[in-house]
């Protein structure tokens, strides 16, 4: 169900600025169409399910903050089975649940922030994702610039704020962005829900020093043939808070929580299959990223 964009190489660098250019990011604006409503600038399944009178996207009130929020609930639709509560910042394909298009955007934010509540039905697991692309006129494709796909862990039963870091794969400046909010995973369960409000992009990675170079990131052996990967920094004042391993689609494979441990750090990669992976380090200096190969 999740939109997948295969990416290549990435670097994350940090800056301190805050901005929000997401259309209808606080979900205050809704439009009535026939017997249902939709959030402006967001694609949902309401145009498909409205003949049944059952909707997977609703307007919640009051907002956090504001007067409204986005309320996504996976539901059993008569004659259609269980449909996910899903919304896309642009156009949604109702058959594949994938984004057809997003919105114009030409910056490299550090993270997506917002407020949420969510709960899974059974083993169902919703997710939040963001994709940044640039149109390549020569090859006539949307070239991937960066992304994240964040599976929702556990449950959040009261409004909480969240910050989800964005991983970049090259130095290109995107020209479009897509945000996907889904209450369910590949097999939706009726009753799974995700409530979201007050979205914003935070920070910028444009025109700032390359973080891996500045910190002296060393990963060895690379390619890694044995079971251990060593991660070190030339700057020994920087400590590791946690280290994530992601596949080439940006899916989280494993996470090690260290709690301000000094480098070098040894990581067990014995369970990884052969292929390319991305390393994302949350450190005292910010987010540091690189790629490694498991052979």
Topology pattern, helix = H, strand = E:
EEEHEEEEEEEEEEEEEEEHEEEEEEE
Mean pLDDT comes to: 85
- CA radius of gyration is 20 Å
CATH superfamily of the largest domain: BT2081, beta-jelly-roll domain
Largest sheet features: 7 strands, antiparallel
CATH architecture of the largest domain: Sandwich
Measured between the Cα atoms of the first and last residue, the distance is 29 Å
Low-confidence stretches: 1-20, 207-211
Helix fraction, binned, reads under 10%
| Helix segment tally | 2
Number of strands: 25
Q: What overall geometry do the principal axes of the alpha carbons give?
A: elongated
**What is the total domain count?**
2
Strand content: over 45%
Judged by helices, strands and strand pairing, the structural class is mainly beta
**Name of the CATH class of the largest domain:** Mainly Beta
As for the CATH topology of the largest domain, it is: Jelly Rolls
């Amino acid at each position: 169900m999740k939109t997948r964009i295969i990416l290549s190489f990435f670097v994350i660098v940090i800056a301190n600025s805050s901005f929000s250019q997401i259309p209808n990011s606080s979900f205050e604006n809704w439009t009535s169409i026939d017997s249902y409503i939709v959030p402006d600038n967001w694609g949902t399944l309401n145009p498909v399910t409205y003949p049944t009178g059952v909707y997977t996207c609703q307007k919640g009130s009051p907002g956090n903050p504001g007067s409204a929020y986005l309320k996504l609930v996976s539901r059993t639709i008569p004659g259609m089975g269980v449909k996910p509560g899903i919304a896309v910042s642009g156009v949604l394909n109702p058959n594949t649940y994938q984004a057809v298009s997003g919105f114009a955007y030409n910056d490299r934010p550090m993270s997506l922030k917002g407020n949420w509540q969510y709960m899974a039905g059974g083993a169902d697991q919703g997710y939040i994702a963001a994709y940044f692309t640039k149109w390549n006129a020569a090859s006539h494709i949307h070239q991937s610039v960066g992304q994240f796909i964040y599976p929702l862990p556990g449950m959040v039963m009261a409004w909480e704020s969240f910050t989800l870091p964005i991983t970049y794969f090259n130095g290109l400046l995107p020209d479009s962005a897509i945000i996907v909010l889904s209450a369910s995973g590949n097999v939706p369960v009726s009753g799974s829900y995700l409530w979201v409000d007050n979205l914003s992009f935070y920070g910028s990675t444009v025109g700032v020093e390359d973080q891996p170079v500045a910190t002296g990131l060393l990963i060895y052996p690379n390619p890694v043939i044995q079971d251990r990967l060593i991660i070190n920094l030339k700057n020994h004042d920087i400590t590791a808070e946690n280290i994530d391993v992601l596949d080439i689609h940006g899916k989280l494979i494993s996470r090690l929580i260290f709690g301000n441990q000094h480098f070098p750090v040894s990581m067990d990669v014995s369970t990884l299959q052969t292929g390319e992976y991305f390393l994302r380090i949350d450190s005292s200096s910010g987010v540091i990223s690189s790629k490694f190969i498991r052979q």
